[in-house]
Amino acid sequence: MNRKQLTLGLLGALLAGASLMAQTPAPAPAPVQPGVQTANPAREKRMERRERRQQQRIDKGVQNGSLTPKEAGNLERHEAKLNKDISKAEADGKITGKESRQINREENRDSRRIARKKHNARHQ
Question: Is 90 left (phi over 0), alpha (psi -120 to 50) or beta?
């Protein structure tokens, strides 16, 4: 066998191996199962604590009369939207930095809404 035939044989074997590798599907990533924590635990804990505190602020405003039922319903609707957005962000198993910033902005807006509605002239 001469050098040219050997080179062509090796090249053919490499191409055949490469084509087989390209046709083999990559292993699928493990599916994220409900209830499995894959997000940053500190971030998750901070978000839950803030949500709980804001809910307490709304409840306290209803109890002491600084929030009307209509205002409380409006605030609850915004909180429900925030919870929906959090669930949507967690759907892929990880809350990205961008999603976290967006959720934080929504929480800030909701916090300001609560403060404005508690301290306006309307009372029960």
Answer: alpha
pLDDT at site 60: 93
Q: With bands split at pLDDT 50, 70 and 90, how would you rate the model's confidence at 97? A: confident
pLDDT of residue 63: 93
- The angle that helices 97-118 and 69-90 make with each other, rounded to 10 degrees, is 170
Alpha-carbon distance of 74 to 66, in angstroms, equals 14
Using CA atoms, how far apart are residues 53 and 51, in angstroms rounded to an integer?
6
**E strand spans, the chain:** none
Spatial distance between the Cα atoms of 117 and 123, rounded to a whole number of angstroms: 10
Token representation of residue 63: 């109890």
